[in-house]
Amino acid sequence: MQWDWSAVGEFMPMFWDGVLVTLQALVLGVIVAFTLGLVWALAQRSRLKVVRWPVTVVTEFIRNTPLLVQLFFLYFVLPEWGITFSALTTGVIGLGLHYSTYTAEVYRAGIDGVPAGQWEAATALSLPRSRTWFAVILPQAIRRVVPALGNYVVAMLKDSPLISTIGVLEMLGEARQFGSITFQMVEPLVVVGIAFIVIAYPASLLLRALERRLVR
Amino acid sequence: MSADSTPNDPNVSTTKETANPAVDGSELIRFDKVTKRFGSNTVLDELDFSVASGKHVTLIGPSGSGKTTILRLLMTLMKPDEGTIKVGGEYLTHEERGGKLVPAGERHVREVRKNIGMVFQQFNLFPNMKVLRNITEAPVHVLGLSKDEADERARELLDQVGLGDRCDAYPTQLSGGQQQRVAIARALAMRPQVLLLDEVTSALDPELVAGVLDVLRDIAQTTDITMLCVTHEMNFARDISDKVLMFDSGRIIESGSAEKIFGDPDHERTREFLSAVL
């Protein structure tokens, strides 16, 4: 097997397209995962059983089935019921929804970690429920769990190639496409592998720095 | 503190209270056969007692005798298993509906509870908010004060507790004694009729205790606020209390003036307890 530098050069235009799509899927997926996760966490703290119970069932179900199966389901089964999204949108929803069930657990741990005295002080001041949550509890809870949430950003980055299976041309998708045209697989795959390290490792370092600043 | 208060005589009713005959210089808090259990452990046993408006009442007794439970019941941090509690003539955990006494809805509890403030052993300041906002948060979002009004009130209170220059600090940047004084200011900013003090100096380093007690003495002397105080600071209790209640195993075994209880208690248990802590 021969390493062909010219193949690397030829792959570059496709590669950059792929990087852009990967980052797009990642950022949007993270937004979905972080927002929806918070919704799940709050819903599981609801005083209403009819809210708590279905949310528990749904999140447990999603957390305990493979992301790949969920992506296929969203992409191939939903259109039969008349619900159609673009491949990228489907990928973002799949990735975000799957990871929202993990971030929900992270938020839950953060909320549980806020001392009971904070709830008691809020009660003693008769703060409305919404103020108690959004001004007192959540700011403290989220601060505690930023590092754990950050780890899921890196995990989502590493799971993002799964969305190439439903035809999203992110980095891996572009590499496979390049390989199927030129029959040169090694060069694009190595480039993509390096790209993941180049994105993920600094991100980990950044998270560790953030952790040192936030968790005292 | 409040504009309509009559500083030197706690028994003279204020204009505000006159509007509400139930608290007119008389009974502000009433416990009626209140029972509280934790599992098989009965912490309060059919407890009856009342506190007159403007009085300073200290609860003493061995730990586990139910003192703190009384404060927590009043603050609605827990619910009584049996019996009723009235504050200012209104049921706290119940409400009357169609002539029947039913468990109170959240709105009712909120309304009655507004008259009560509490200072905790562990301060429980909000660490994510600066000192000033710790104090203004509830006046703005519960009483509906404008931000400027609330800020002004908070600054006055901070001056009063000797922390006028620490508005922009975060709680963790303050000493325990300073944090506790902020917590006192935070409770007072709601202008409660009743202030509950739950072992407010127990978590403090010894050299910081005096500053907090001075602030509380000042409040006791210059306002007509009703105080319920659980403390192990017997000298402080002797100074400020109109009445002292001695608890043992969920019952009041003796009550009387500070001079009486600390000077010449009737009950043997009281004598034992005081000789152990004094």
UniProtKB/TrEMBL annotation, chain A:
Q: What does the entry list under GO cellular component?
A: ATP-binding cassette (ABC) transporter complex
Report the coiled-coil segments.
none
UniProt GO molecular function: transmembrane transporter activity
Per UniProt, the keywords (alphabetical) are: Amino-acid transport, Cell membrane, Membrane, Transmembrane, Transmembrane helix, Transport
Q: Which CDD domains does the record match to this protein?
A: TM_PBP2
**Spans through the membrane:** 20-43, 72-97, 189-210
The GO annotation for biological process reads: amino acid transport
| InterPro entries for the chain | AA_ABC_transptr_permease_3TM, ArtM/GltK/GlnP/TcyL/YhdX-like, Ectoine_EhuD, MetI-like, MetI-like_sf
**Where would one find the signal peptide in this protein?**
none
- Domain of life of the organism in this record? Bacteria
Predominant localisation class:
membrane
Q: Where in the cell is it found?
A: Cell membrane
Please report which protein family the annotation says this sequence is part of: Belongs to the binding-protein-dependent transport system permease family.
Q: What is this protein called?
A: Ectoine/hydroxyectoine ABC transporter permease subunit EhuD
Q: Which organism is it from?
A: Streptomyces boluensis
Q: Tell me the lineage of the source organism.
A: Bacteria, Bacillati, Actinomycetota, Actinomycetes, Kitasatosporales
